[in-house]
Specification:
By secondary structure, the chain is mainly β. The strands form seven sheets. It has a 22-stranded antiparallel β-barrel. Strands 1-6-7-4-5 form a five-stranded mixed β-sheet. The protein has a two-stranded antiparallel ribbon with strand order 2-3.
């Protein structure tokens, strides 16, 4: 029987993130303390004085395609995650409204997979390398304490993959869905010994291939993904973990539609999309090494090192005439990024004035070297091919962040947690494409910010607590956002400032039987919010919008009852508005920040015994979403439903899981995601109508 709300699992395991937030001390008290060793059993979401949700890997895979994170993360309050139906641009993620402006990839959030950042030093991230088949759990941290992770305002999403254990298990799976979609996968996991003796080894290795013709015209995609995790017990006090991940993506890009085009035919694309054969290819390979050592009874050392390369080629639908401007970078992006980093930290546990105290200090260094080239997307009368070069630059980005965090157990009922991070983010751009009519765009920029956060928790009783937290976060421009100036002049847009956010949050959590109820009330005031200034001809410029305010309420319920029944629900009320200077004057003051739904509701119920017949149903509601700063275009509100059912056989060492599902049960026509402030008015990315899929997973345990 699954028991997620009370599962004995740590939240944001300290071994995985550059700043360990959540573990358990060895005094037996329930507080948020840091430790370089994995948290012992007994810690649950209840004991964490922050807005955090943990989604088990089995829940992510339950009767699901196992392709996108958007499939089974709807039960997380405050998280707006939407599938663009466009694998050239990744998912659209935002937490409490941060990240909603991103036209591709992920902005405003920090992403980690097994401790390796999925977010680059400039704040740009992606989810394409996450293998859902190998996930152990996903942690979603929202609110003030996300500031302690550096360059992100909205939150932290940490993905921890499975650690191999006995017995050795081999698993194969297939999934087939509408629009020519299918996925095949294989996974092997196991261990020698129980992990407590020198020489013990554990491993998890997986690979998958996904292909789709796509719901829309010109939206075919394929993705090959591999993931590996190997752990070694060196001696009684130290462990070493090797990590490897690789992904290859080829995807067509259908682009957006105007509201009229969407109503007329949501599956269509504009003519330039096919003329220039818009598409994207991504190759990313990375590796990591994590070393952990218990230096003494009260001291731990943790070192995380990683390196990777990401190569991207993208063909855009920018008209030939637009590229006649000698300063235009062209319609083909050729991008290579080499990134690496190291995070080292020391944790000490002690008592002071008879109070248990934990102190962690560390240093996080990340760097990325980017070679960016631009080419014309035509050659003579041929379109959608690489033509003459129009851009050639080398960009260097790095951040250096020392941090300190302390946790105090003030009494049996009160605890205090506080942290401070000093974040430095540096940009250096060198332009190698300089002509008589295309000036030198070289430049540099550096940003510094102190990032404090604190939380005070009161345990009302053993099953109920309340907390008050506050913190300051910041978000720098990405190198892409710095690249262009609205006045068309050369050089970086150095007038663009980082956004600074101050958040106050009041929350409470209550355990009821085999379930957990959570509530959080928050307000975030942001200065210099980064917003789109102009977006035309494939070139987007950005500016600071003065002040914005986000006020919200998040409610979450995860209740298990009657042995095999479970109900999950989440409601998010978020009022996010401009307070000054969003449109260059005061005309947009009071307008909603585009890309953000004011109301989100998720409800799901499932009957899921360990074996035999199972079934589930879910309902998702999203209120209308403003598409631009003027708020004169909105994606309509929608409600969609889904059903799934299956049967699981357990026969000796074999497990067979067969399921089917129907999404968008009532065939609603709705907008799946919004391209904020799209200069051509093509704001809408349509979602598919009613669609069907079936899946099969077969595993064998070598006992």
């Amino acid at each position: 029987m699954k028991n997620v709300s009370l599962r004995q699992a740590s939240v944001l395991l300290p071994a995985l993130l550059p700043l360990p937030l959540l573990a358990a001390d060895n005094t037996g008290s329930n507080t948020m303390v840091v430790s370089a060793a994995p948290a012992p059993a007994g810690l649950s979401e209840l004991d964490t004085p922050a807005a955090v949700s943990v989604v088990n890997g089995e829940d992510m895979r339950q009767a699901a395609p196992r392709v996108n994170l958007s499939e089974n993360l709807g039960s997380v309050p405050g998280l707006q995650i939407q599938n663009r139906q466009n694998y050239a641009q990744d998912l659209q993620l935002s937490v409490r409204g941060f990240g909603a402006r991103s036209t591709y990839g992920v902005r405003g959030l920090r992403l980690y997979v097994d401790g390796i950042p999925g977010t680059m030093p400039d704040g740009q991230g992606q989810t394409s390398n996450i293998d859902i088949g190998s996930i152990d759990h996903i942690d979603v941290l929202r609110g003030p304490f996300s500031a302690l992770y550096g360059n992100a305002s909205g939150g932290v999403i940490n993905v921890d993959t499975q650690t191999g254990q006995q017995p050795t298990t081999l698993e194969v799976g297939s999934w087939y869905g509408s629009y020519g979609s299918w996925r095949n996968s294989v996974k092997a996991s196991g261990a020698t010994g129980d992990g407590t003796h020198a020489g013990d080894v554990n491993y998890t290795v997986s690979a998958s291939r996904f292909t789709t013709h796509g719901y829309r015209d010109h939206s075919e995609a394929q993705k090959n993904l591999g993931n590996a995790k190997l752990g070694v017990r060196i001696d009684d006090v130290s462990t070493l973990t090797l990590l490897f991940n690789s992904v290859h993506i080829e995807a067509q890009d259908p682009g957006g539609l105007t509201p009229d085009q969407w109503r007329d035919n949501p599956r269509q694309v504009v003519s330039n999309v096919t003329l220039y054969n818009t598409r994207k290819t991504v190759d990313q390979t990375q590796g990591g090494l994590r070393y952990q050592r218990q230096m003494s009874e009260n001291d731990d050392l943790s070192v995380m090192m990683y390196a990777g390369i990401r190569e991207t080629t993208q063909y855009q639908s920018i008209p030939k005439a637009t590229q006649s401007n000698p300063t235009h970078p062209g319609g083909v992006i050729d991008l290579t990024r080499h990134y690496q980093g190291i995070d080292t930290r020391w944790t000490h546990r002690d008592t002071l004035f008879s109070m248990p105290v934990t102190l962690t200090g560390g240093l996080d260094y990340e760097t990325m070297t980017e070679r960016r080239k631009g080419f014309e997307n035509f050659s003579g009368s041929d379109y959608g091919v690489k033509g003459d070069i129009r851009r050639n630059e080398r960009n260097l980005m790095w951040n250096l962040d020392p941090y300190l965090q302390t946790a105090w157990q003030l009494s049996d009922t009160w605890s205090l947690d506080a942290g401070l991070r000093f974040s430095t983010v540096n940009f250096d751009s060198n332009d190698y494409y300089v002509t008589a009519r295309n000036g030198d765009d070289s430049g540099d920029a550096r940003y510094h910010k102190w990032l404090p956060a604190a939380s005070l928790k009161y345990a009302i009783d053993s099953s109920w607590n309340a907390y008050l937290s506050a913190g300051r976060g910041f978000e720098t421009p990405t190198i892409n956002e710095l690249s262009y100036r609205a006045d068309g002049e050369t050089g970086l847009n150095t007038g663009l400032k980082p956004a600074t956010s101050d958040t106050v949050e009041l929350g409470t959590k209550k355990r009821i039987g085999n379930g957990l109820i959570t509530a959080a009330l928050f307000q975030t005031d942001t200065k210099n919010e980064i917003v789109t200034d102009t977006s035309l001809g494939g070139r987007t410029t950005y500016k600071n919008a003065g002040e914005t305010r986000r006020r919200g309420l998040e409610l979450g319920v995860d209740q298990q009852f009657a042995a095999d029944w479970r109900v999950k629900a989440a409601w998010t009320l978020l009022d996010a508005r401009y307070r000054s200077n969003a449109c260059g004057d005061e005309s947009c003051n009071g307008n909603r920040i585009p890309g953000i739904a004011r109301n989100m509701l998720y409800t799901g119920v499932e009957y899921a015994p360990e074996q035999g017949f199972y079934a589930g149903a879910e309902l998702r509601y999203m209120s209308n979403i403003a598409a631009n700063d003027a708020n004169d275009v909105k994606a309509p509100a929608y409600t969609v439903a889904a059903l799934n059912s299956g049967y699981k056989w357990l026969v000796q060492n074999w497990t067979l899981d067969l399921f089917g599902r129907v999404d968008n049960l009532f065939d609603r026509n709705y907008v799946g995601s919004v391209i904020v402030n799209e200069g051509n008015g093509r704001y809408f990315e349509p979602a598919p109508g009613r669609n069907y899929s079936v899946g099969l997973t077969l595993s064998y345990a070598f006992q």
